[in-house]
Amino acid sequence: MKKRIALLLSFVLVLSLALCACGGEKKETLVGTWNATIDIAEVYNAEIAASGDETMAEYLSVDSFAIPLVMTFNEDGTYSMTVDKEGMDATMNGLIEDMKVGLEKYFNDYFSSMGLEIDVNEALAASGMSLDALVEEMKAEIMTEDMYADMESAGQYKAEDGKLYMTEDVEVEPVGGVYNTYTIDGDTLTIEAGTEELEDEMAELLFPLVLKRAK
Q1: Which residues is 67 bridged to in the sheet?
Q2: Which of 30, 71, 132, 196 is the most buried (most CB within 10 A)?
Q3: Which tens digit of pLDDT belongs to each residue from 163-181?
């Protein structure tokens, strides 16, 4: 009987130490690199629709506009948020191709509705232009270094009791009551909107932000 009790106590002790070890490790799990994908197709389609020709907007709407986000939390309390350029290039190339297909179909349908049997490429060629050149020009205007810079930020962070305090300045420590909340479940980090005031569409776009730990 005493041996069984001693064995049981030993088991409880080992279990409690294991749980303490897990608890200690959990505090550090925010440190590292995390990846997320934000799909802004809905926002993009709304912007296209609001820009003018609603009929053309139907041709230029997209099903997906994925931004591959990378967040890194460092042990020294600094963080950075960037985009994966290779993934973003693939997204933009796909977007440009979708726009090319949409524009071609739009103009061909327009010419057809006017009773004209002419292809958009023929029409553009008559003006010394081509759809490919037009799309490449649009691509060059969109895909600039400024595009990436606008989506990147860096600063300091503090994580405690499920609250994530952040600043967008590496020289300024996070203070005050402005924070988002976060939870970690294995290799999944979920950030929810906290006390920070955000525009409604921005809050809907960003949160909940679900990130996966980089392998």
Answers
A1: 38
A2: 71
A3: 999 998 888 888 777 888 9
